[in-house]
Amino acid sequence: MTSTPPLNALRVFETVVRTGSFSAAADELCVTQSAISHQIHALEAWFGAKLFDREGRRPLPLPHAVDLAASLSVALADIRAACRRARESGMSQPLVIAAIPSVAVCWLIPRLARFRAVHPAIDLRIIYAVHGQSIDFQDVHLAFVFSRGVPELPGVAATRFLPGISAPVCCPQLAARLGDAPTPAEIVALGLLHDSDLSGWRAWFDRAGLGDREVPPGTVFEDFNLMRAAALSGQGVALCPEAMIRPDLEAGHLVRLSDIQVLEDCGYYILSGARADRAGTDARDFLDWALGEQGE
Question: Which one, 48, 60, 115, 214, has the greatest CB density within 10 A?
Fold first, then answer.
């Protein structure tokens, strides 16, 4: 018998304890449940002792197995971190930029050619960030997010990027049904489009003196770009941050219908974690470029 158990079996064992079942571990490791069972049996044979209580519907790790799994979790995390550092130092890595869909489609992608023109040696990888979900800054250098107030995350710096102030807009064809100074009620009568939920329009109703009225349900879009596309195609009035639709307003594709605005306490931020620090000048060059493009 070798002096140490098979490393793959240890990895399988840690995954079973962490996920709580053989089937969940099989899904995470992309193997069959029988392969998981085989590895666990091999590990128990090496130890000469059982690791799980199998009397119930789910295998429960015995006390000594819980201690072993906790130590393995720390060790495997150290191994992953060491491999990541070796990979990053041993080969050229692209700068990974995560962006919520509104920023990616409306602001970042249309400007990427300008970035490449001034920084041709910096390779980029653009990925989606999902609003409300955590970002793994072990894999991401910089991230564009939307937040009410300054995001506060351990080990992550937040730089204010663009305001989130929002106002009602629609396409010119729909706006033509209104007069030069439409009332809030006339705007609402055109039909409302919603981004994720009704909270934005609820705030606008309160500002517009419509606080005693229910917000019409309308169509709810789980992505800002879907709502923007609906507004551009004349399907209703959308409450949009001007920072994201400024090109649409300047080109006349969308028309602002009211001076009443909401979400002044919200904004877009650029987040940078420890990996951005390790990337050195590449991350700093991108951040400086993005901040310089704010007013464009």
Answer: 115
